[in-house]
Amino acid sequence: MRAELQRLLDCGKQKTQLYPSDPSLRTGLICTYTTNTISGSSRTASSSSVIRPDALSEEEFRPLRLQNGLYIQRFAPMLRVAVPYGQLTSRQVRMMAKIARDYDKGYAHISTRQNVQFNWPAVEDIPDILAELATVQMHAIQTSGNCLRNVTTDQFAGVAADELIDPRPWCEIVRQWTTFHPEFAYLPRKFKIAVNGSTSDRAAIEVHDIGLEPVHNAAGELGFRVLVGGGLGRTPVVGSFINEFLPWQDLLSYLDAILRVYNRYGRRDNKYKARIKILVKALTPEVFAQKVDAEMEHLRGGQTTLTEAEVHRVAKHFVDPDYKALDDQSAALAELDQQHPGFARWRARNTLAHKKPGYVAVTLSLKPTGVAPGDITDKQLDAVADLADRYSFGQLRTSHEQNIILADVEQDKLFTLWGELREKGFATPNIGLLTDIICCPGGDFCSLANAKSIPIAESIQRRFDDLDYLFDIGELDLNISGCMNACGHHHVGHIGILGVDKKGEEFYQVSLGGSASRDASLGKILGPSFAQEAMPDVIEKLIDVYIEQRTEDERFIDTYQRIGIDLFKERVYAANH
Known about the structure:
By secondary structure, the protein is of the alpha+beta class. It folds into four domains: 2-134, Alpha-Beta Plaits (2-Layer Sandwich); 152-317, Sulfite Reductase Hemoprotein, domain 1 (2-Layer Sandwich), CATH 3.30.413; 330-424, Alpha-Beta Complex (Sulfite Reductase Hemoprotein, domain 2); 438-573, Sulfite Reductase Hemoprotein, domain 1, CATH 3.30.413.10. It is 34% helix and 17% strand. Strands 18, 19, 20, 21, 22 and 23 form a six-stranded mixed β-sheet that branches. Strands 3-4-7-6-15 form a five-stranded antiparallel β-sheet. Strands 5-16-17-14-13 form a five-stranded antiparallel β-sheet. Strand 16 and strand 17 form a beta hairpin. The chain is globular, with a radius of gyration of 23 Å.
C-alpha cells in the first residue's frame, strides 16, 4: 500500500492522469499519460478534452477514466469521490473543503450514493486532487463505470435504537472484496450493493442490484436475507429475495456466485438491457437462484469463506467511541421545547433516538430554501468538521437523502448545537418533510439530463416555505430526476418528478405512491407531463387532496395507498382547478 500511495503521489506531482492497471494484477494505479488540454477558455467539456494516454482511443479510455470517478458533464468535468457507506472523519471533510476551495468553485455536492462530487474541477488538476485525497485515505476508484460501485448503508448505522446488528463491518468486508476485483472490473453494467442492519430499511435495499439484511435462524445463528435484481433508471424494478438465510460465513462466496452468473449471462449487446434486474426478470428469480446455487457448489468452503478471525479483524475498527455514562435528558429537553418552539420543531424532525442513554443522532439539513439540495460550501464543510470534533467524536456521515449526520451528540449539548447549526445554515427543520427534496444536479450540470431539476426543487421549496403548513402536511418524500436514469430516485418518491423533453422544451412527469422503505413500491405515473412554471401548482393540488382525504395520523403515502390515484388525477387535470 505504501508503494501504491507513493506512486499516486508521484502521479500528482507529474500532472499525469491515473487509470487502473490490468485488473488481474490488482496493483492499483499506474501513470503513463500525456496531456491533451481543454480547448477554449469557457472550459466547455467534450470527450476530446480528456487527458488520456496516446495509445488508447477515447472509446478504450472511457471505462478507465470512469472507474476513477471522472465524468464529462455539460460544462466541465465532474469528479466523484468515494465515501464508503457514508462514513467520514473531520480530517477528511477538511480535505473536501480544501479541494472545493482550491480546485472547484467553493462547494461540493452530496450524492444519492453517499459520495461527494465536485462539479467544476479542471481536468489537468485531477491528478493533484487524487493525490491530496490519498493523504486522507480517500480516492475516486470505482465511483463510476461498469463495475462494483460504492457499498451503501443506513446513515445511522452503529447508533440507531432499532438496529439488529451494526452493518458497517459487513459493508467494509464487502468493500474490500469489491475493490479491484479482477473478475468484476468490466461487468455488463454498473452494480450497486446496499446493506441494512435495522428493523426499518433506511438503506433502500429493495431497489439495489443486491440488497442484504441480517436475520437469525431458529438456532440463533446470524445470516443474511439476500435480494437481487432491484434498481431504478430506465426500467425500475423492486428486487426479489432469492435466499432467506445465507450463513454469514458464505457471504462473499454467495456474492461471488451472483456476480459470476450475471457476468456470464448478462447482456452486453444493449446497455439498456444490461443491468442484472433485466437478467433476473428474464430468467425468473427462481431460475436465477438455481444458477447461483450451482455456482456455489464450486465456491463453498473455498478461499472466500469468511472466518471469525477475519470478521473480527474488520469489526474491531467499528467499536463504540468513548461514550460517557449518561442519563436521558427527556425532562430538560421537554422544558427547552416549551421555551423555544423553534428548537422543538428542529428536535422533532432532525434528531433520532440513539442506542446509548444520553445521546442522540442529529441530521444537518442541506435543504434550506434557495440552496441546491445536497450542496455544501467549503466554509460550511470546515464548519461541519469543527462541529464533528466538538460534538461527535470527530465522525460524521452522509445520507442517500443528501444530508449530513452527527451520530453521537450528547443530549445536554443539543440546545447549544442547535444554535450553532442555525448560524451555519444547517438547522432547517425539514428532515423527512416535503422540502427535504432528493434532487439530482439535472440539466444545470449533467449532459444526460432532459431537463433541469434544481429550479423545480427551489420553486416547490418556496411554495411550501411556511413551517406551520409544512409540519401539518407531515412526512412526505419528494424526489426529482432530470432524466430517466433516475439519479434523483423519482420512482420511489411518495411524489416523484421526472424531467422529460418535449420537442426541445422541458416538461415534468409526476408519479405517485413510490417508496424506498421496507416493502418498497414504484410510483405510478399521474398522467401527461407539465410545464416548469406549473409544477408548484401541481404539487399544491396533490397536497390539497391529501389533506382533504387523510385520516388522523395518516401520512401522504398511507392516504395514497388507501384511496388510489384517481382523486389526485381528477384534481390536477380538472379545468376548474
